[in-house]
Amino acid sequence: MKQPTAPDLYPELPIEDGQNYRLQKITEIEKTLINERDNRKSLYKKYKRGVNVTDGVDTCLISTSVVLAGIGIVFPILLPIQITAVVCGSLGGLVKLIRRKLTTKSK
Fold this sequence. Notes:
Blueprint: H1 15-74, H2 79-106
């Protein structure tokens, strides 16, 4: 009986090429992860700086609002000071909301 002369269905591949391919893919993935880590680190620094700035602004606005409200209560004739106190308090609340958004984005 004659043996078939058709080529094998699955050719023999060298083992080294597959290993090199896997190592190359691992290196590419590692570089991608390192780049992503560095980007996240820089974004975290920016958001953290924004949180710190908004925290300071919020503290100043709330303190100003309390002082002006106290002056407005002592001297009821000074209506513009009371209006300024209300505006500072409102801005303080707005800055607090912005700080919360920045805090959630930084995490």
